[in-house]
Amino acid sequence: MASDKLIQQIKQQAQFLKSILEKFDIPIKHTKSLELVARIMYGYPSWNVAKGNSPDRRTAETYNDFVKQIATLADAVDGLRVTESDLEFVDGEPAISQLPYFQLPAAILASIYLDRPFAHTNFYDLVAERFIPEDMFAHYPEALLPQSNYMAFQMARLNLEFAGDRPTDLADYPWQKWADRMTRKGELNADTITAGRSVYRECLQHQWDLDYVLLCGGFDDGRVLEKMLLQWPEKTLKVIDYLMDTDGGKMQ
User: What is the pLDDT of residue 167?
Assistant: First the structure.
């Protein structure tokens, strides 16, 4: 089984997760919280596996690991996951543009990792402390150095999101992999797949707001994007049109 130290840590983190969610009027059973921490933060198939005959596992080691965990949490809890009403338009904008779709689960997980009281800025603090190399800004003149962890994240974001080997073939880009997978499944028509592929690509290449990147596939290999297009195709396509026309809400 995982070590007693890790088992106790998971229990404490599960209680912390439960308490934070309850502050946002999102009730959750302790057993569900244990499952989420074991699966999302440590990669165990379940809490029972974690406390059974399993070795200790490490938490997120890279920024991309971390944002995938955020995406998983966002889609695992009622009150965090996207709903049909989030795709309704209010005063010319989709309702989800006013919601902390990424920011809330990101701050929750960061607070748990850092073992600090919940704060929305904890996401930027964790990224700066764990994932931005210490020498990233070593050659910047003093006047251009980031003055906060939020600024450090914005300056390092491109390097963080595209860390590792860059694809050299079109078929290796994540949005193309998503489109190819959707084509093989045969559940979406060609025009819908093209729209999904386009918004997936643009959210990453144009560095859209993190809430939109999560919505459009950039942090979860397009799983939520696929679900929305299957469950609410008309409303999802309308949101996609808005995002493409405004470059992720940048041009109103």
Answer: 65
User: Whose CA is closest to 27, among 86, 101, 95, 80?
Assistant: 80
Q: Which two tokens stand for residue 46?
A: 């379940």
- Listed residue (96, 121, 135) closest to 224, CA to CA: 96
**Where residue 54 falls among pLDDT bands split at 50, 70, 90?**
confident
Map residue 115 onto helix, strand or coil.
coil
Q: Sign of the CA dihedral 14, 17, 19, 21? A: negative
Last residue of a domain, one of 59, 83, 107: 59
227 shares a domain with 140: yes
Q: Is the overall model pTM greater than 0.85, yes or no?
A: yes
- Residues 89, 204 within the same domain: yes
Rounded Cα distance, 165 and 161, in Å: 11
Q: In whole angstroms, give the CA distance from residue 113 to residue 246.
A: 35
Beta bridge partners of 93: 90
Number of domains in the chain: 2
What SS3 string covers 45-75?
A: CCHHHHCCCCCCCCCCCCHHHHHHHHHHHHC
One domain, residues 31 and 111: no
Range of the domain at 139: 60-252
Phi and psi angles of residue 24, each rounded to the nearest 5 degrees, phi first:
-100, 20
Q: What percent of the chain has pLDDT over 70?
A: 97
**Residue from 207, 197, 196, 205 nearest 229 by CA:** 196
